[in-house]
Amino acid sequence: MGDANTREDGQDTVDQGVGEGQAKRVEIRGDGEGDARRPEASLRFRSAPSPNRGGVCRIPGDVRGIVLHSTEGSLEGALRTFAMQGGVSAHYAIDRDGTVVGIVPEGDVAFHVAAFGNRPALNRRRPAWLVQYDGRFSAVNACTVGIELVGFARTGFTEAQYSALGAMCAGIAMRWGFPADADRVVTHASLQMDRSDPGDAFDWDALWGAVRIASPGGIGGWSEGDREIVEVVRALGADASGVRGWIERLGAYEASSKSGALEDRA
Ligand SMILES: [Zn+2]
Prior knowledge:
The protein is an alpha/beta fold. It has helices spanning 75-83, 139-143, 159-176, 188-191, 204-214, 224-236, 240-250, 252-260, and strands at 45-47, 65-70, 92-94, 100-102, 144-149, 185-187.
């Protein structure tokens, strides 16, 4: 479940101090409806925006991993929690039938892990890719996408959820340029002392199987074209608005909100 981030609110956006105008030269491919380059193309989306977000625009390189959670209750209950001002959030929730709910855009920070913030007693295992705590967000929140699986750690999750989760992990990893593997896809429990989600019943084989099916070039092995997009955008160090456009064109959450506001998308 999402987790209180003991932060001082800051409205600063990420400033990479980079040149402007170059983003125009990038030819972004793979933003079409049903495009094979988007592993999530066949998923059903709806959105339930949360006010609990950092107000930043993360650019390629900022997002380095994915944290898995379980809601330990219904989707409705989780969304009520995420809607409460000043509380917690995640980027996505995946319902029992595989429907993906977009809660916070991937480019923004969600508040789903308290470890590696200003309460070191909560810290468990520190992944090598984790950034330093910057005082505004817990380090984990700053550089991950949080996904909530609707259900209970004790009883586990459905086939439809693994299938959707695999596609989401593949898509997120592709957009942000890291491998969808056991190093980068981690559990809340692995990071934080007082959490155990998504639990021992979580079926890793089912997840990796689904990631493999959804990945055009295999796990972490994107095609040259996909790799090129990520590398070009990263090398540009383009201005935030240009990169925001890139994220919006490829992002599942943004794509779903653009194409049909709050409706389901087949
Ligand atoms: Zn959690």
